[in-house]
Amino acid sequence: MKEEPPPILGSWRRLYAAVLGWLLLLMVVFHLFARRFTP
Amino acid sequence: MRPADWLVMGGALALIVLYGLWRSRGSDSVHKYLLAGRTMPWYAMALSIMATQASAVTFISTTGQSYVDGMRFVQFYFGLPLAMIILSATAVPIFHRAKVYTAYEYLEQRFDARTRALVTVVFLIQRGLALGITLYAPAVVLTVILGWPDHAASVFMGVVAVLYTTLGGVKAVTWSHFQQMMIMTLGLVAALISAVTLLPANVSFLDAVNLAGAAGRLNAVTTSANWSDRYNLWSGLIGGMFLALAYFGCDQSQVQRYLTGKSVAQSRLSLLFNGIAKVPMQFFILFIGAMVFVFYVYEKPPVLFRQAELQRIQPLSDFEPVAGRYDAAFQSRRSAADQFIQARRSGDAALGQRALAQYRKAQGELDAARRESAVLVEKAGGPAGVNDTNYIFLTFVTRHLPAGLAGLVLAVIFGATMSAISSGMNALASVSMVDIYKRHIRKTASDRHYLNVSRALTLFWGCYAVLTAQFVKEQGALVETINLLGSLFYGGLLGVFILAFYFPRVGARGAFYGVLAGEAVIFACYFFTGIAFLWYNVIGCAVVIATGLLISPRTRGTLPAPSGAGSAAS
Q1: d(CA B287, CA B432)
Q2: Which residues of A touch B81 (CB under 8 A)?
Q3: What is the Cβ-side half-sphere exposure of residue B498, based on CA atoms within 13 angstroms?
């Protein structure tokens, strides 16, 4: 059965990679945020 | 509660229920009642998935958790996006192609009826217990705020949720979740803006963030590797991922949300949206808790947020010196906070260091006075180790938010409770109908008969939830109790689904005894070790897989093709 592609980014693999990238970005931002405001 | 609060709260709750019922009209078959005829768009499922997870506990307890322990609880959710990706790639297409009504139905296609029955029972126990706790949370709210007895609160909430879930089925649940998430977002934004605007005029938003950070309340990422530390980066990524895999992949209360999707793609999108939005949402809620902490740097908080326990110890002679130390520490923290802000603005590093040291010392003294008060509660005949985490945010909401806004935030809390228990009732009714009634009690009957049984079972589980909520005892932070309960069972559930999906050579015997062994080890960890509960999911799952592999023949098997017809798809 042919897989229906996602509405953005063209393939599910790319969409999964984008979610992973988003998680990484959040962790980095939270880490920097905590460091910036914790003396 | 002022008239404006009642008006806003009543209006918001009525809107949620009526909108859900209106959208659910036409649920006149089992297929529509339990699966919405598989017509739901991704955005409705996504918000329903988020609303199912975001119970009242999320708002009451998470904000309090941030107030006392900082924002490190956000790490608990780091594994969730990973789980969403794995489930989108694996479980969603498998469940869709199998055309099942419940996740456990698939286990009979893959293993046998015995394994399906065992896992069904594990689910019914776990979700049934969780339902009572979930309903108990708003009873805590109403007890504190309105002076209602616990019983009245849970009965009121239960009856409203039972009404629309029984009448409208999964469609009513999903569309009311959609409304609830809208109102939740509005309420949360309003709560944060209020917390910041209620600060003294000389304290800016940036000052408030600095003060929260100086008290260690912004510790959003901690990298220490400690097995008994509940929340750090590693337990969040690994333990959190396993917990999320089990919760979203094996718990019918979540699986049912995305089984209603129009297609595999729509269901996948709903899970991935959750993976994107959940972590920032939790961060936001925790940040509200941190801002409430800063608000109480300037507005003296009660020694204990549980009014009844505070009143119990106030007449004691031992309380006076504790209260005196608490007052002095509050004044000292407040003046240190002012100096800290001043030093930051003027760039005076030496003054900043002195103010920071005094601020932290005063915070330590405040915490010590709160601990001493908790001991006094026990001395005065109250509960041991009294925990007021769940009362902090509500005290702030009801005492300090402007008229109308408090009602909106309370509507968020009540709406969240209804959303969580309606999903639970819906899932418990589906599993009882499909995996027990139709499988073991009455295998053939008309669609109308099964629809009526589904409605009756929804009503039964609703009454069960209301009754068990009367017997729940408060145990620390409610959010932890709920997650601990899930972790006691999810490792076993997840293990058996992993065996089903990825290990063709494992047969029914391996799966059945694997689940039993996994659960035995999890309970041994709980009773005899100090391992943090998030790891139970990893350990339990590993034991199920290892046992399943050990007692299965070493010949390579093949996964059976899904039958393509759900047992209740009549």
Answers
A1: 40
A2: 19-20, 22-23
A3: 26
Which chain A residues are closer than 8 Å to B562 by Cβ?
none
pLDDT tens profile B269-306: 999 999 999 999 999 999 999 999 999 999 999 999 88
Which residues on neighbouring strands pair with residue B40, listed in sequence order? B261
Structure tokens, B88: 């989108």
Residues in a beta bridge with B261: B40
Name the band, by pLDDT with cuts 50, 70 and 90, for residue B451.
very high
Contact B298/B335 with Cβ under 8 angstroms? no
Tell how far CA B354 is from the center of its chain: 40
Give pLDDT tens digits for B90-143. Answer: 999 999 998 899 999 999 999 999 999 999 999 998 888 888 888 886 676 667
Question: In chain B, which residues have their Cβ closer than 8 Å to the Cβ of A6?
Answer: 265, 268-269
CB B264 within 8 A of CB B92: yes
B564 touches chain A (CB under 8 A): no
Q: Check if the beta carbon of residue B239 is closer than 8 Å to that of residue B79.
A: yes
Q: Classify the phi-psi angles of B386: left when phi > 0, otherwise alpha if psi is within -120 to 50, otherwise beta.
A: beta
Determine the residue among B74, B217, B221, B223 to mutate to test chain A binding: the one whose Cβ has the most chain A Cβ atoms within 10 Å.
B221
Identify which of B103, B105, B108 has the alpha carbon closest to the alpha carbon of residue B512.
Answer: B108
Number of helices (H), then strands (E), belonging to chain B: the values are 23, 0
Residue B279 forms contact with A (CB below 8 Å): yes
Nearest CA among B196, B394, B389, B375 for reference residue B297: B196
Q: Is the pLDDT of residue B208 over 90?
A: yes
pTM, entire model: 0.87
- Distance from the Cα of A16 to chain B's closest Cα (Å) equals 6
CA distance B78 to A26: 9
Residues 6+ apart with CB under 8 A from B49: B248, B254, B257, B258, B270, B271, B274
DSSP state of B120: H
Positions of E strands within B41-176:
none
- Report the first-to-last Cα separation within chain A, whole angstroms: 56
Task: Identify the CA nearest to B77 among candidates B58, B105, B56, B102.
Answer: B58
Checking if the pLDDT of B151 tops 80, the result is no
Instruction: For residue B149, give both structure tokens.
Output: 């007895």
**Nearest residue of A to residue B281, measured between CA atoms:** A26
Reply yes or no on whether the pLDDT at B173 is more than 60: yes
Burial annotation B508-535 (CB, 10 A radius, 16+ → b, else e): bbbbbbbbebbbebbeebeeeeebbbbb
Query: How far apart are the CA of A14 and the nearest CA of chain B, in angstroms?
Result: 11
